Amino acid sequence: MLLQRRLCITALAAASLGTMPAVNAQQPAADQLMLNARVHTPSGWQEALAIRDGVIVAVGSSAQIGALRAEDTEVHDLNGATVLPGLHDMHVHPVMGGLARQRCQIPQELALPAIQQHVADCVAKAEPGEWIQGGQWDASAIGQVPTRAMLDEVAPDNPVALTDTSGHSLWANSRALEMAGVTRDTRDPKGGIVERDDNGEPAGVFREDAKQLVEEHIPLPTREEITAALQWSLETMLSHGITTFTDAFIGVSGNGEAELQAYAALADAGVLKQRTRLCIAWTDDNPSAEALIAKRNHFARDRLAPDCIKMFIDGVPTDSHTAAMLEPYGGSVGSHRDNASATGMLLIDEETLNNAVTRFDKEGLTVKFHAAGDGAVRASLEAVQATRENNGFSTLLHNIGHNTFVHPDDIRAARKIGATFEVSPYLWAPSAINNAIESAVADQRMERAWPVKDMLEAGALVVPGSDWSVVPSVNPWIGLETIVTRRVAGDADGEQFGGKQAIGLEQAFDIFTANSARQAGNANITGRIEPGMLADLVVVEENPFQVPLHRVHATTVQMTFIEGEKVYEAGSR
């Protein structure tokens, strides 16, 4: 049934290519009309549109579209509001975004005394011995790599585990290390670093896979807690006009199966409205991940596709030095001694990576790579190249995520092998994480951080990702503004971050709509407003193309529609 529906939609779309067709007076009446609006279409601004059975059937003037009204047609008089295609977030963590609300939340860029006060407040609200989880700290604001003693001062009895702004480093107190059995004899695990003091004792910070030494001792959230967290996040994303998204890390809670069960249950209950792709986290030494991948189709639903694999190729280019770089880091916060390579670390070897991507491609699974450093991006592209040589080209668009740094040669290579770039988080402006990156890299490479403009000019497919809850907000309008201005949202003329890589607003809008629809495999049904496309729409009060650029982030969503169903209305939450 779904295939037949998509074929019909594709036929309608093909018939409507080119200029917008005139409304046929003999057409059946529409289910819904949107009149007196500003409608964004590929051929220019229109005034109205008509929807039947969840599909856009006509676009034109209010007079033309009004001819498709019947007695039972629902009419939305939008009084000059703007109608846009639904937005996409191609890298987001809704489960963690919801769970974080219940944890010890530390605003970014706080100095040590303020962090300690927040932790003390959280301890005061907790039960004796209860784990204190949360984030987000950053070493550049603290001024050094933090230590467990700093947390012991305010939390001597409760175990504490706090993630940094990247989510790739964990800061724990002595009680947490005691419960985890971490001592000076604990070795660095594969793909991880235990920071140590001058005496060789664990200092309290754990990088990448070393985080698991502590995390595996923290009680997992229940399925009910995961479901409630996810439902809150889904509603939040709808309120911002996000109609399609990719959950980039199934397993983020430590309980991947419960996350899949939560998605399926919410889909069955009619709560999951968005078109959703799920990426199951995989490592070569994790049997439970293989088991989850094997039964993934059990959780598939009409708008729910667990058909993506997440691979972590490196870490992050902050004080941790765990992002794999082609050239050595230029600086850092604090001293790493011999704990981290001068060029970072690859978390998977070339042969294992190439074989895994080739295998998943053959099974029809899209791979999303975590690759922040230019060395990791190159390794990911080489894996896609090996896959094409082994399997031939397919319709699968393997997607490299983050791309904080990319060598110019690799930017040009991506299109040739059918690889795509996802730029995340929404950190294209001065920020805490960028401060940490600049402290670590500290050279001219910062001029080409997140090289979005270069990617577009090379003809690469570029899509956006918030990486929420790594960033404080999932709001895509912040990303739309800052990818254009490369300034802090709302700042008209302040400091830019990587200003040479700024792009135009129309280019940015395509990244959040049509480009993302292509990445999701939905280019023939979503991402544009024209006859034959599904009515995934967002109605906003002000036209973001007509306000000053520094006000785009303040765009207010009035209504969100998915396949013609109104799934959000301002004031309804």
UniProtKB/TrEMBL annotation:
The protein's name: Amidohydrolase
Signal peptide limits: 1-25
GO MF terms, alphabetically ordered: hydrolase activity, acting on carbon-nitrogen (but not peptide) bonds
Gene3D superfamilies for this protein: 3.10.310.70, Metal-dependent hydrolases, Urease, subunit C, domain 1
Keywords (A to Z) from UniProt: Hydrolase, Signal
Residue ranges of every copy of the Amidohydrolase domain listed in the record: 74-568
PANTHER family: IMIDAZOLONEPROPIONASE, PROTEIN LONG AFTER FAR-RED 3
Any one Pfam family match given in the protein's UniProt record, by short name: Amidohydro_3
Alphabetized SUPFAM superfamilies for the sequence: Composite domain of metallo-dependent hydrolases, Metallo-dependent hydrolases
